[in-house]
Amino acid sequence: MLYTDLTKRALRLCFDAHKDQVDKTGLPYVFHPFHLAEQMETEYGTVVALLHDVMEDTAYTPEDLAAMGFPAPVLAALRLLTHREDTPYMDYVAALKHDPIARAVKLADLRHNSDLTRLDTIDDRALARVEKYKAAMALLEE
């Protein structure tokens, strides 16, 4: 992980935003963005990985993040990574394809979310989700 003033600010916000959330198996949710951040090679990629679900899963807004001093390229990638309910999933994925930061984070996100060893129970819903994620990865990698 890259440690800069900006990534440390993102680490603190990530932990604060997700500290009471758990994943499908009851593990602290914050482990997921930390895992993605470890895979990033740039400062902005690390920040976006840490914050990729903050606007989607908490009350934080782009304006809040801008007020905290997160730069425009980070905010642009985060907006792209925030899936709106009224947008079909593959349209959402296609829209972020050309932003290199959003694309790198989404690919790491999809790989991690496709890891069935993270689950206690593998059911038809989990298998269907993995197929959807495979299609999204193929779109991002073409």
Provide structural commentary.
This protein is mostly helical. It has a single domain, classed as Hypothetical protein af1432. Helix content is 65%, strand content 0%. The chain is built from nine helices and no strands. The protein has helices spanning 5-18, 31-39, 43-51, 54-57, 62-67, 72-81, 89-96, 100-113, 124-141. The two termini are 27 Å apart. The mean pLDDT is 96.
Layout: helices, strands, pairs:
Elements (H helix, E strand, L loop, with lengths): L4 H14 L12 H9 L3 H9 L2 H4 L4 H6 L4 H10 L7 H8 L3 H14 L10 H18 L1
Helix pairs in contact: 1-3, 2-3, 2-8, 3-6, 3-8, 6-8, 8-9
- Tell me the number of helical segments per DSSP (H or I, 4 or more residues long): 9
The major β-sheet equals:
none
Shape: globular
How many structural domains in the coordinates? 1
In CATH terms, the superfamily is Hypothetical protein af1432
Give the total of beta strands: 0
Keywords:
single chain; 142 residues; mainly alpha; Hypothetical protein af1432; 9 helices; globular
Question: Quick gist of this model?
Answer:
This protein has one domain (5-141): Hypothetical protein af1432, CATH 1.10.3210.10. The protein is built from 9 helices and no strands. The protein has helices at residues 5-18, 31-39, 43-51, 54-57, 62-67, 72-81, 89-96, 100-113, 124-141.
